[in-house]
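sorry to bug you again but im stuck and you know this stuff better than me. what follows is a protein written twice so to speak, once as letters and once as structure tokens for the fold. mainly i need to know what kind of three dimensional shape the backbone takes. anything you notice is useful, everything is just below:
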Amino acid sequence: GGWWYNTYTQAVRLRRDLALLQAEMEARLAEKQAMIDRLSRDHRRAIIEVRDQRLDEKGAIVETTIDFIEIDDHGREQGRVTATVPGDTIYVDAWVAKFERRLVAEGHPLMGRTLVLLRRIYSSRLAPDAGIPIDTPGAVPAGYAGPESAPFEKRLWESFWTIASDPALARSFGVRVAQGEAVYRPVRAGDRLELLVEASGGMSLVAKDGSK
């Protein structure tokens, strides 16, 4: 009886442990698939709202404050950056990073995909290098982030940003920057603009809701 009880208890424990392991594996696979689905986005969208502009004693625009609001395909907010830049002409730049398709076979989740990275906001009076970053290096960009990023996804993006900042290292990993692009336009307080950046490299900035 004692032998039977011990054998039964061990069998129950083993089934429980196997069930927990299977559930954990399924959760990890689901997280990975969800991340790959997000990486498959072929564009990123944002709304730029001009909140305020400061004038000098002659009425000239000294600085402009905007909200840069990234949205998904359903118009839901994914990330927000508030920036104040000198002048009244706003620039936004992005760049497209593409992995060589010959490396897809290695099984890396980014391989064979084109990523649209939103780099920074600057102005006609502020140099690009001094611009306000949109996608934070080392972090998961808002356009590709899920409700809660898995540790695997965080490590993946940390590695990607390291690779992306070093052209020689990028080539060794099969990553190349297809092209960078910037759009700009003068704005006035109350303006509302829509930014669209496509994976192919196309970039547009258009006025919405009666903005000039």
The chain has three helices and nine strands. The two ends are 86 Å apart (CA to CA).
